[in-house]
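One example copied in:
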Amino acid sequence: MITGALLGMTGALVGALGTSIPQMITAGVIMGCGGGFQEIVFASVQEIVPNDRRLLVLGFVETSNLVANFSPLIATMFATRTALGWRSCYWFGFAFEGCSVLALWLWYRPPSFGTKHAGDGEGKLKLISELDYVGLALFTSGCVLILTALNWVRSICTLSLMHVTSCADYC
């Protein structure tokens, strides 16, 4: 998660200092990669919170995500009412990710592999050998095929057609 926060800081810095469209696209890609890493927060709650409090803590984590619903409003306020304009959104993101890095560095202490698997006696190689590689390959190929099909359909006809949008909604 620290890696994700550092990527978010880097992307926000690139966006705040960017002077061209390719730099802004790069900033978005870097911040998106950082956000992908930060989705691990749900797994970290599972490993550091006792079972009897897990549901409550996951509820708090989900509730804290409600702020994201107001992000366009907050960004508009930053862009229209600050001296830096739209760049202040990136500087706010940079400061937020910096606080996240600091908080994670100070307080996040996940259990080690040995601590988590002390009672079951399973090693890393045994757990890796039990992974469902066929299922993983089928899942990945299914996702790629769906995305490829949607891309082909978009090039053939408009996505406003009812059968195309209903298929995309179903996926």
